[in-house]
Every structure is written in structure tokens, then in C-alpha cells.
Amino acid sequence: MxxxxxxxxxxxxxxxxxxxxxxxxVLRETEGVELVAVADAYGDPHGAATxxxxxxxxxxxxxxxIDIAMCAVPxxxxxxxxxxxxxxxxxxMVEKPIADTVAGGEKLAAAFEARGLVGAVGHIERYNPALxxxxxxxxxxxxxxxxxxxxxxxxxxxxxxxxxxxxxDLGTHDIDLTAWxxxxxxxxxxxxxxxxxxxxxxDMVAATGLLDNGVIxxxxxxxxxxxxxxxxxxxxxxxxxxxxxxxxxxxxxxNGTINTEWESVANFRGVSEGNITRLAIAKREPxxxxxxxxxxxxxxxxxxxxxxxxxxxxxxDGGAGTDRPAATIVTMREGLNTLRVAEAMIASAKESRTVGxxx
Length: 359
Hints:
Elements: E1 9-14, H1 20-29, E2 33-39, E3 54-55, H2 58-63, E4 68-71, H3 78-87, E5 91-95, H4 102-114, E6 119-122, H5 129-139, E7 146-154, H6 166-182, E8 186-194, E9 204-211, E10 216-222, E11 229-236, E12 239-244, E13 249-255, H7 263-269, E14 273-279, H8 286-301, H9 310-316, H10 332-351, E15 355-356
Parallel strand pairs: 1-2, 1-4, 2-3, 4-5, 5-6, 7-10
Antiparallel strand pairs: 7-11, 8-9, 8-15, 9-10, 11-12, 12-13, 13-14
Organism: Arthrobacter sulfonylureivorans
Keywords: NAD
Pfam families: GFO_IDH_MocA, GFO_IDH_MocA_C3
């Protein structure tokens, strides 16, 4: 870890469920971080806390004298746990979404900002190698003007989710990554949902949106499909990028430069097919990159992180160089904006209207 000296951050983890167990592993592996305590009201069902004290609640973590915390409890508990950590002066990353309501998310973001603490939200898709590389390529102008961003996030029903619907659980991934890729906010959304699993919340959504820079968006999200897919397609004036975040593959479909001699096909297509290139990119585990970004944000907040030399940064980045931008945290304010869009989608579906988000 370049520039951090021997500083070691004492970390605590609350929530030892399906995601919590992965956070425990990665926290143990992250240089400059020592996982010293964990907490979960139901104990340690996955055996992720070997050798560590397991507390029943957030108070035990606070009393353990931690510097940073990872909050992986159910969404409905984010505000309660997060506010306790903020009050204790502990830098915290919460799993996405930031909260179950915009009002709760606002309280959480304000609490960390008021105390000058690092507050982050775990929108892990931003750290996927394919999307990191795609963001850098879009920023450098490889696609020219961006016309549309379309996402598909579909798969089997997750038994672990009970307190929110598919929009806040899965759809927030696509809302966040779309605004991040386009570097623009949502201006409006329109959505249709359905409930097929017999539970309170929606389990399927088809949504469209308009960003404030004119890019149009399309999102298909459900947890009712036997086929799992995680695909983002960005279409622009020079072609289209297709990112598969399940495999971290990025492919560029270039607009053709060769005339099509078959007249009926040429007239139909408008844009001709060109070369298809599967791009070679370094593939680090997104969760590790996410935790490193959070660690570095905390060290920078404390004035303990010096910029790494370019060569060292490239080596640390798996040799990616300019393949992707330096990883930064998703702030709580950004997470709150994502939640606002998610709630606008839910309102749109209930009220059968397009919902504006500006002003």
C-alpha cells in the first residue's frame, strides 16, 4: 500500500450474512486494515469470524475501539446502526442501498458529513473491472457522444431479501452505475412493475429514464428468471460497448466502415456492422478494490495518505495503467441520490406516470 506507512486501521464488521462473510474475508486480506471484532444478533452462521469476538450489536463493536466499520445488516437497520457509528466517530461503509427510505438516507448522510467522517455506500458494481475500464474509455472519448445506456440484471429469487423490493435491492446497482458511467444525473424516470412471488414488494421492473445530459436509459431488473445475467450496453456515435459484469468482460462493437452491397440489408440497418473486439483488462476482485478505496479515503481524511508514484500505482493496479480510473468511494450523498431515483421508479409504477427528479 503506497504511501500509508505502518498505519493500521482497526476494523469492525456488523452483519455476518451472505454478504457479511465476504466482507470478513476481504477485510482480513486488505493491507493496512485489521479486522478486530464482528457483530451479528444471530451469531456467525457461516463461520466467518474465526478467532474474533462476536458481539450481538453495534455497541460491542464501538467498545472494541475500532477506527472503521463495515455495515452489512439488513437495509431496514442501516440508519439505526449507521447513526450509532457516526455518533461514536467511526468512519463507515454501509451496504447498498444507503437506507430503506430517502428520509433515512438523508439522516445518515447528514450525520457523517456533520462530523467530518468518511461515509460510503457499497455500490460494488462501480468496482467491477469491466465497468472501471468502460468508464475510463467513455471519459477519454472512445465512443464519441453517448446516446443510450441499457442494463439487464436478471436472475433467480434471492431468499436473503425480505425488506425491500427488486428496485432498491438490485435496481440501485444499475441506477448508480448508469449515472456514474454517463457522469450525469437522472432527470426523469418511468417504470412498470409486477409482483409474482407473493410478497409485499415488486419483484420485476421495466424502466426507462432520461439523464440531464440527454442520454436515454433502459433497465430490465428481476429476480424471477432462471437465467442469470448482468449486462450493460452503452451505445454511442462510434459503436457500442457491452460489459458483462458476471465475467468482467468488455467488448467493443464498432460501427462499420465497409459498405454493404446487399441493398435491402443496407437500407434496413442504417448503421453497418463493424469489427467486434473483446478487450483485455486486468481483473481484480471488485470487493477488494472497494475496500481499498474506502481504506484510502479514511487515510486521506486523517492526512495519512501520500499520493503514490505513477509506476507504483500501475503495479498496484495489476498493470492496468490507464485501463481504468483510480477507484474512489461512493459517497453517502451519491448513494442518497441513487435511492431518490429508485423511489421515483416505484412512484412511477404505482401512479402510472413519468416522475421528474430535477429541481
